[in-house]
Task: structure prediction
Amino acid sequence: MKRIAVTAALMGVFIFANAQTKDSVLTSGGKLKPEQAIMDVRHYTIALNVFFNQHTIDGFTIIDVIMAKPTKVLLFDLMDDYKVSSVLVDGNKQAFDYSKGLITINLNKELPAGKASVKVFYGGKPHVARRPPWDDGFTWTKDSTGHQWMAITAEGSGGKLYYPCKDHPSDEPNEGVDLIITVPKDLVVAGPGLLQSVKKHGKTATYHWKTNYTINNYSILFNVGDYKVFKRPYTTCDGHQTTVQFYVLTEHADKAEHFLDMFVKTIHEQEKYFGEYPFWKEKIAMCETPHLGMEHQTMVAYGNKFRYTKIGGDDYDWLMHHEFGHEWWGNKVTAKDWADYWIHEGICSFGDALYTREFAGEEAYNKIFQQSIYGIQNKLPIVQHPDMDEEAAYIGDIYSKGAFFMHTLRYVMGDTVFFPALKKFVTSPRYTYDNLVNTDDVEQFFTKEEGRDLKPLFDLYLRTTNKLDIHVQALRGNKYLVQLQNISIPLPLDITTDGKTNRSMVDSKGIKIDSKTLPLIDPEVFYIKKVTFE
Result:
């Protein structure tokens, strides 16, 4: 959710790239380095002391990997804000070079294929976010009562913002992460997974957070503040017991119960469409942050300042809903390349509209897309080419046009096929957790569920900037020929003739209709289209 502009039409979060003003080091992904392509990251252990007065961190990170091939070089990403004091590989000290955002470890002898453990000792001043979450970095601030408050945003830069890692979306630590963070004892650390322990020693306290789930590296982070924790038991739609938690600033504790009421309502609604909450073995949680928000796994960042709107007569928080939706689309279902991140942002934004459908009705849902179509830029395809970095991939249309594509796909497939298929995809082991996906996977899945080839529709919406070209030719005797000009498969199409709307399957050959008045094509706006009358 980087570089966001709030758009009421979709009640979601849209991203606008700004590559000219953004430091090139603050982007992630791109073509995978050969030294990292043979490396499978299994686990991170990040143990850090946080010094608020100096705005520094100091400690170590352990990276457990499996090497597919023997190697004499190991390569890890870490931004040039730190001093690396030493590197150990399987307990043995190794020579290294640290420059241009890379730690290059030149091994004393060849490392065989198989398991290895790398421990990096480092410290320094992390990059400070200038405008979080639009820009990544650490935010050092204070709440209104004077307590220290710190947050991290790293979606664009990746985890290399503050810990050495393999900075590529194609590899996540399959065995999870341990975060061991030491802060002043009057503060609380909020992190992913389950809290293992809190150890007080003098003026400091050490919080140990642990997740066993696969996790993307920009969700491996923590927030620190004067938090009070509110908890409720929750039973998932599949009957599993977990807890809903809200790490809220003590000064806002009076807002927590109503927030949790809304949060639980949101959880139920998201489970209806997308299946069981993905990380129930750990927790469902949100954490108040000084920035607007981000989809951090099992500890979603929330900074919308309790500004609610109304849907169906009840309070609604678009930020809460959108960022929590990423627990399914982004955290459970994860794209292996930034080029395919419409899967995260487009489907999650479509999910925002489903909340309106659920509590305000079909007409209100349709109006969202009738309005949001005007915000689609259509300057670049939303799926461009493989090996993109985050900065190039994150254009606004991955939200707006990605969501509209799902709206179109729903219309084309029909609700009795589409909604079960959508839930089947997001709950299938083949496409979730350890198994990362791309656009081809989504296309092939929905093609199979539909029972006919949907590739032309996916290509039109996702891989081109073309609109569906509909040609209407007037014939004699109040007749018209309606044809699809630029797609090879028949599609359903609503056509209003003489005040009545009917749905017909239309292809390139076209269909003839009778109408005494000029027909209206797709009046409810289910397509991004261009209609030509002749």
In short: The chain is about 20% helix and 35% strand.
